[in-house]
Every structure is written in structure tokens, then in C-alpha cells.
Design goal:
Blueprint (H helix, E strand, L loop, with lengths): L2 H13 L3 H24 L3 H5 L9 H20 L31 H21 L12 H23 L22 E4 L2 E5 L15 E5 L2 E4 L5 H9 L11 H10 L7 E4 L2 E6 L2 E4 L11 H10 L7 H9 E2 L4 E2 L46 E8 L19 E8 L16 E3 L8 E2 L3 E3 L3
Parallel strand pairs: 10-13
Antiparallel strand pairs: 1-4, 2-3, 4-14, 5-6, 6-7, 8-9, 10-11, 11-12
Helix pairs in contact: 2-6, 4-5, 4-6, 8-9
Function: Catalyzes the oxidative sulfurization of hercynine (N-alpha,N-alpha,N-alpha-trimethyl-L-histidine) into hercynyl-gamma-L-glutamyl-L-cysteine sulfoxide, a step in the biosynthesis pathway of ergothioneine.
Enzyme class: oxidoreductase
Cofactor: Fe(2+)
Length: 449
């Protein structure tokens, strides 16, 4: 670990020892998550809550009770030492025991009962928080268990928002559009210097196991797109026969799109000479200046090949997002160490889509790369693998069981991600065929190319 990285992580650790500040942060994070859960589960009626809108997703009512069950397991039982409230439902809401496609057949709690259960758990958890001692065990240190549960709920809120996007029928959610932005006229790409940097973290208090530990990486110089790839750029790929030419696709990607008849991003359709998209029940023209979203890894990889470029590795992405060449240290976020604010990034479901490419100049990295946090999850070239020295905590099913070549890493978060579950070290992963997620990408090239 470099000395500058030690300095910032010492500051974070010191802040984490302020018990009352941690208590306030935990309360705010839990409350923000529950407010969002309530919105997502009260804006539609009971039939929509209990229906399975896609075999890829759970019924919304499963997510609701699962959120409460995980909170009970980790806060009330593991931290508080309380007896199980409803041990008979643990198996129903074990994500590893029942695949999503099977969950509608389970004897799930009906919506009102699920709400009462989640609310009762939350009331007891907040009582526990009032007297919690954030010392003693790794689970309680710096309020980690409370932060883990807030992140877990926000991750399921994003999952439920995906379900809302897949749901047929009239629009149930509304939010203001992002502020219009002038056309971006900056450089198309930025050179990231080669050399070492510190990847991951060892002391960010609420970082999850796959983000740990901090470790040195050495990266060759490379160029990376200043902004994510836009709809207009992706349409050029389509118009040039991108989905018709096998030459741009990996063998697995070509077989996948041919087998499923994929010819455009998910939710797009052509109407005469115009591309339309469906977004949360609303059909509208595809905006050319927004980052493309709902593309799978194979599509991102094919576009990059067509453009004469490639997807960045996960290491390259993190260096572009965290490295400050003036100090040589790795920051928490592209803009610095401060928590995200509205001027930095499009996060937290403030909007129901990405902002125009080039937005949020205050959130740019020191090298000038924009929108690395928020707007769209960005596919990288990398498989989801553990860092050197990785230790599963607090359970191996969070990360360890997913390591390997089956999953590709996504970075940066999306408009659907809450700041508590998004930082420069945060890692997401999914199968390369997934398109229902809020995924986009940017491209890179080696310096010599």
C-alpha cells in the first residue's frame, strides 16, 4: 500500500470511530432505503406485487419480505442476539435455496403481512441501533452490519426497479428528467498514465468483502472514453450492420444473439425510420445524447471491436476512476473523498434514466473522465475474481460463490443505485447475457494502438 493511500484510509478509519456520527449515518441510510422500498411496493396494486413480471426476477412481494428477513437475520439475531421472529419463513426467503423462476410457487407472505413483518423488524432494529456499541467484533465495528443491511436493501430496491421496467402496463413511477446539458465538446478520450496505483480498500468502513483488501496494481498507459457510449454512437453500430456481421462478435456472443434474435438494445424497437424505447411504461424516442443502457456484455464487446477499441479491464476502470496523478493516491470517488452529492453524479433514483453524456462536470476525475459514477453500470473486460488476500465475510454466498469466468464485472453504479451502495471500489457482477439490468459501457484502447 502506498503512503498516500494509507493517509486517506487512516482518515476514514478515524471518522469511523465517532459513534454518534456512525449511528446517525446508519439511521439515515436505513431510513432512505426503507422510504424507497415503500415507494416501489406501494405504487402498484396487489396483483402486480404478487405477479412474476419476468422469470429473471422475483415477485416484488418476495423482495419485500426478503429485505425484512435479511435484516432480522443479521441485525436482530447476529448482532442483537435475539430469538427468531418467524423461523419458519427463513427458507422461503433464502435466495440460494429457491431460484427466482420458482419463487411465485412458494407460500409467500401476502403483501400486507410482508409489510407488517418488515416494519416490525425495522422497529426492533432501530431500537437496537440506539444502544449499539460499534466495537468488539468485525460485524459491529464501525456499524458494518447496519451498513451492510442498508446496502442490501438498496440493492434489492434496484432489483425491484428493474422489475418495474419489465412490468407491462401503465406507468407507475415518475421522477423529473435530468437537467438538460449542453452538447459535450470535450475530448473523446483521455490518457490514463501507466504505473502503480492502489486498488481496492482495507479500511473503508462499509466496504464489502469483494472490495478488500487494498493492494498494489501496475497498469500500462491506456486511453479511455471521456463519457459512456451514447445511444447515437450505438445506433451507428446498428446502422452499419453491427448485429449482422459475425466478425465483431465473440463466438459465444454471436451464438447468443442469433439464438435469441437480438438486433438492438432491450426495450428498443424501430418505428419506420425512428428508434423508440419503452421506459417504465412510457414509449418515447431514443434520446441520442444519453448513454446507451440495457445492453449485455456481448453487445458491449462487439461494439468496442467494431469501433476499433476494447472494453477496459476492471483494473483500468478503477485507476481511471480513483487515481489522482497530482498526489499519486487513490481517492474514494473520481471527484475526491467527499460522499456523492447531486452535482457529482446521477444516483439514488432521483431520475428514471441516465443524464446526457458529459453531464456532472463536478464529478469528473482529475484526468477529466466523466460519469464514472452513476447513470449506467459499465461492463468491463474482466471476470469476477477475488483480490489477493480476499476473505469471505460475513458469509461466502455474498461474493465467493460467484467468482470465476461465468460472471463479468460491472463498475460505477447507475441512476438506480443509492450512494450507500456505490463508491470507487464497489464491484458488481453478472452473466454476460444480462440486459434487463441498467448496464452500459465505455471503451478503451492501449496507448500504442
Amino acid at each position: 500500500m502506498t503512503a498516500p493511500e494509507t493517509d486517506i484510509e487512516t482518515e476514514t478509519e478515524t471518522a469511523g470511530t465517532d459513534t454518534e456520527a456512525l449511528r446517525k449515518r446508519a439511521l439515515t441510510s436505513l431510513t432512505t432505503a426503507r422510504d424507497r422500498t415503500t415507494l416501489l411496493t406501494t405504487c402498484v396494486g396487489e396483483p402486480d406485487l404478487t405477479a412474476q413480471h419476468s422469470p429473471l426476477m422475483s415477485p416484488l412481494v418476495w423482495d419485500l419480505a426478503h429485505i425484512g428477513n435479511q435484516e432480522e437475520l443479521w441485525l436482530l439475531r447476529a448482532v442483537g442476539g435475539r430469538d427468531a421472529m418467524r423461523p419458519e419463513i427463513d427458507g422461503l426467503y433464502d435466495a440460494f435455496e429457491h431460484p427466482r423462476a420458482e419463487r411465485p410457487k412458494l407460500p409467500l407472505l401476502p403483501p400486507e403481512e410482508a409489510r407488517r413483518y418488515a416494519a416490525e423488524v425495522r422497529g426492533r432494529a432501530l431500537d437496537l441501533l440506539e444502544t449499539a456499541d460499534f466495537r468488539g467484533t468485525r460485524l459491529t465495528e464501525a456499524g458494518f452490519a447496519f451498513g451492510m443491511i442498508a446496502q442490501h436493501e438498496q440493492q434489492h430496491d434496484e432489483t425491484m426497479l428493474i422489475t418495474h421496467q419489465l412490468r407491462k402496463g401503465p406507468r407507475a413511477l415518475t421522477a423529473p428528467d435530468p437537467e438538460p446539458a449542453p452538447p459535450f465538446t470535450g475530448p473523446a478520450e483521455v490518457l490514463v498514465p501507466g504505473g502503480p496505483f492502489t486498488m481496492g480498500t482495507s479500511v473503508e468502513p462499509w466496504a464489502l468483502d469483494n472490495e478488500r483488501p487494498a493492494h498494489p496494481r501496475d497498469v500500462a498507459p491506456f486511453w479511455i472514453d471521456t463519457t459512456p457510449v451514447t445511444n447515437a454512437a450505438y445506433q451507428a453500430f446498428i446502422d452499419d450492420g453491427g448485429y449482422d456481421g459475425e466478425r465483431w462478435w465473440s463466438p459465444e456472443g454471436w451464438a447468443h444473439i442469433r439464438r435469441h434474435g437480438i438486433t438492438a438494445p432491450l426495450f428498443w424497437r424501430r418505428d419506420g425510420g425512428q428508434w423508440l424505447r419503452r421506459r417504465f411504461g412510457l414509449t418515447e424516442p431514443v434520446p441520442p445524447d444519453e448513454p446507451v443502457v440495457h445492453v449485455c456484455w456481448y453487445e458491449a464487446d462487439a461494439y468496442a471491436r467494431w469501433a476499433g477499441r476494447r472494453l477496459p479491464t476492471e483494473t483500468e476502470w478503477e485507476k481511471a476512476a480513483r487515481f489522482d496523478p497530482a498526489t499519486g493516491r487513490s481517492m474514494r470517488y473520481p471527484w475526491g473523498d467527499a460522499d456523492p452529492a447531486p452535482e457529482h453524479a446521477n444516483l439514488g433514483q432521483r431520475h428514471l434514466g441516465p443524464a446526457p453524456a458529459g453531464s456532472y462536470p463536478a464529478g469528473a476525475s482529475p484526468l477529466g473522465v466523466r460519469q464514472l459514477i452513476g447513470d449506467v453500470w459499465e461492463w468491463t473486460a474482466s471476470d469476477f475474481l477475488p483480490y489477493p488476500g480476499f476473505r469471505a465475510f460475513p458469509y461466502k454466498e455474498y461474493s465467493e460463490v460467484f467468482f470465476g469466468s461465468d460472471h463479468k464485472v460491472l463498475r460505477g453504479g447507475s441512476f438506480a443505485v443509492d450512494p450507500v451502495a456505490c463508491r470507487g471500489t464497489f464491484r458488481n457482477w453478472d452473466y454476460p447475457v444480462r440486459r434487463q439490468i441498467f448496464s452500459g459501457f465505455r471503451t478503451a484502447r492501449s496507448e500504442a494502438c
